[in-house]
Amino acid sequence: MSRIAILVPGKIHERVLERLKDRFEIIAVAREQKLALDGGTAGRIRGVAVSGAFPGAWMDQLPDVEVIASFGVGYDGMDVKRAAEKGIVVTNTPDVLNDEVADTAIGLLLNTIRDLPRAEAWLRAGNWKPGTAFPLSRFSLKGRHIGLYGLGRIGLEIAKRLEPFKVKISYHTRSRHSDAPYDYYPTLKELAEAVDTLIAIVPKTPQTHKTIDANVLAALGPNGVLVNVGRGWTVDEEALSAALASGALGAAGLDVFYEEPSVPSGLLEPANAVLLPHVASASVPTRIAMADLVADNLISWFEKGAALTPVPETPQKIQRD
């Protein structure tokens, strides 16, 4: 009896392939505008393991696909509307990367406020000599009021990590969290006006596009700090570059950018910006856990008829004839 065929378009963590190869037939193809699949092969594919976007046009090439397992917590690159119309389950990898991203957010915040990367670079360049000292950092975490733009799973983990620093914590989301012990602000602008530090951890949606704009940055002010570990989509990078260059904003720490891996020169040049190449979840243990969840979603779907972590927009259980 032939094994169930699983499509893998482009690259994916090698552990996914290791976990799947003994149970399924793996069909690997390049990422192209149209998948290089003949009709017979496309008709045999019932599942997908993917890292990155999966457009609706690809779904239309796969008449019998049942489940698409995505490597990542964000699934804005998935055409979930088209998947739902076709009865396809889409899964992601929530929770397994919450701690890593939250830890990175705190590290990025401290590095940005205390200017630690530049201090290390100054030392490595041989500048620390008798009678010399690295300049005092302009800012301190002590006494800050931190606003969280987003209070989902990762946002809550960031908040928990901030509490021992004895800072004030507030947040803005679309609706108030009744059980959250932090002050709620109904708009992002109001949050920015109240706080001096803003940590963004919201997904890429039409509602979050460039919401951190010149007005929000001006509200944070010259002593304000922006940290973004969510999506570059959320920030107006031209406005941010201008604010950093003029001093209208004190500093920024960014792990994500609007058009990765392209980083605007206006963000590369300012000394008051700390930049990371989208590494918030990039540790070996976390990526292994993400890969395992991708594989486990596919295995559970075909063995039990239900995925472990389906996204809410698509079907939750098996719908086979």
TrEMBL record:
<feature type="domain" description="D-isomer specific 2-hydroxyacid dehydrogenase NAD-binding">
    <location>
        <begin position="106"/>
        <end position="280"/>
    </location>
</feature>
<keyword id="KW-0521">NADP</keyword>
<comment type="similarity">
    <text>Belongs to the D-isomer specific 2-hydroxyacid dehydrogenase family.</text>
</comment>
<dbReference type="GO" id="GO:0005829">
    <property type="term" value="C:cytosol"/>
</dbReference>
<dbReference type="InterPro" id="IPR006139">
    <property type="entry name" value="D-isomer_2_OHA_DH_cat_dom"/>
</dbReference>
<dbReference type="Pfam" id="PF02826">
    <property type="entry name" value="2-Hacid_dh_C"/>
</dbReference>
<dbReference type="InterPro" id="IPR006140">
    <property type="entry name" value="D-isomer_DH_NAD-bd"/>
</dbReference>
<feature type="domain" description="D-isomer specific 2-hydroxyacid dehydrogenase catalytic">
    <location>
        <begin position="53"/>
        <end position="311"/>
    </location>
</feature>
<keyword id="KW-0560">Oxidoreductase</keyword>
<dbReference type="InterPro" id="IPR036291">
    <property type="entry name" value="NAD(P)-bd_dom_sf"/>
</dbReference>
<dbReference type="GO" id="GO:0030267">
    <property type="term" value="F:glyoxylate reductase (NADPH) activity"/>
</dbReference>
<dbReference type="GO" id="GO:0051287">
    <property type="term" value="F:NAD binding"/>
</dbReference>
<protein>
    <submittedName>
        <fullName>Lactate dehydrogenase</fullName>
    </submittedName>
</protein>
<dbReference type="GO" id="GO:0016618">
    <property type="term" value="F:hydroxypyruvate reductase [NAD(P)H] activity"/>
</dbReference>
<dbReference type="InterPro" id="IPR050223">
    <property type="entry name" value="D-isomer_2-hydroxyacid_DH"/>
</dbReference>
<keyword id="KW-0520">NAD</keyword>
<dbReference type="Pfam" id="PF00389">
    <property type="entry name" value="2-Hacid_dh"/>
</dbReference>
